[in-house]
Amino acid sequence: MPIPHAVRAFALPLCAALFAGPAQADTYPSKPLRLIVPYPAGGYFDLIGRSVGTRMGQLLHQTVVVENRPGANGVIGAQAVAVADPDGYTLLLGGIGPNATNVAMYNKLRYDLRKDFVRIIHIVNSPCILVVNPSLPVRSVADLLALVREKPGTIPYASAGVGSSQHLFGELFLSATQTRMMHVPYQGSNPSVAALLSGEVPVSFGIASDVIEHVRSGRLRALATTGEQRIQELPEVPTMKELGVPVVANGWFGLYAPAGTPPGIIETLHQQAHAALQDPSVRTRISAHGAAEVIAAGPQALQALQDAEIARWQRVAKENGISAQ
């Protein structure tokens, strides 16, 4: 029996739609991928993106193009990914700022962390380092606390801006030790480190990748780190936890895709990102520059971390009256 023309006209597009999903998954990726890094080129965020992205591209047999979209502590880059097509060709290198602390800092984000992204892999943790300019007469956390208690609210500490990791880690430390210092926000990490090196501001809770070389050269003095364990690059520097200060906190980085990206594509991306992080050259590059620990944990672990971090930093921000708006 002949099939009426009208039925054929309806059925052919329907069949094409039904078979398009599996066919696309089988051929993925068929073109270059974009990895949005929501911070400027040249920093540690950028180094992670380029290190992991380059190796993933080799494993996927496609180019991974790193695109820097800085601004508003990662908001601009994260928003670009949140509204991108969920086809696996636009990814976000997220982290503690765009994927956790921004919830505490901004009353109205232009994206929903829980609804607009799919988690792929937890890449790395990197602690902060409590550092001082050598002109400050302190050689330990105990010395610093004695000075701060002698002059409450007057000793300044530098950060990369209101709501930055340095700021929040600093407030976490001050809350834990029941002390007060004067927060001095700068417009980014580079100006805050420059102020620290010049002695304009004597203290900072520096991102490891920003300050570790200055510690090695003697231009800064490290008092403690905020990780669970001492870092290999500065084995003589104790953790806060060792010193009896209940502060354990890390900067962290993860890979995300827009919500709605097919599960098969997410699995492919997770497998290749995990493989990239097993590459010794990638691990060495990431670890050496940021005193970092490569994690390579899956989507569920990244989700659990993100949820815990959002709750923690919302509490810290609320207790200390911190807001970027």
Task: Describe, in plain words, how this protein is organized in 3D.
This is Tripartite tricarboxylate transporter family receptor. Keywords: Receptor, Signal. Belongs to the UPF0065 (bug) family. With about 325 residues, the protein is of the alpha/beta class. It has 2 domains: about 30-125 and about 250-320, 3-Layer(aba) Sandwich (D-Maltodextrin-Binding Protein, domain 2), CATH 3.40.190; about 125-225, Periplasmic binding protein-like II (D-Maltodextrin-Binding Protein, domain 2). The protein has helices spanning about 5-25, 45-60, 75-80, 95-105, 140-150, 165-175, 190-200, 210-215, 265-275, 280-290, 300-320; strands spanning about 35, 65-70, 90-95, 115-130, 155-160, 180-185, 205, 220-225, 250-260, 295. α6 (about 165-175) links the parallel β5 (about 155-160) and β6 (about 180-185). α2 (about 45-60) crosses α9. The termini are far apart.
**Shape from CA axes?**
globular
CATH homologous superfamily descriptor of the largest domain: Bordetella uptake gene, domain 1
Reported CATH architecture of the largest domain = 3-Layer(aba) Sandwich
The CATH class of the largest domain is Alpha Beta
- The total beta strand count reads 10
Mean pLDDT: 91
Number of domains: 2
CATH topology of the largest domain: D-Maltodextrin-Binding Protein, domain 2
- Count the DSSP helices: 11
Q: What amount of the residues lies in strands?
A: 15-25%
Specify Rg, calculated over alpha carbons: 23 Å
Low-pLDDT windows of residues: 1-21
Q: How does the major sheet shape up? A: 10 strands, mixed
Run of helices and strands: HEHEHEHEHEHEHEHEEHHEH
Signal peptide: 1-25
Keywords: Receptor, Signal
Pfam family, one: TctC
InterPro entries: BUG, Bug_dom1
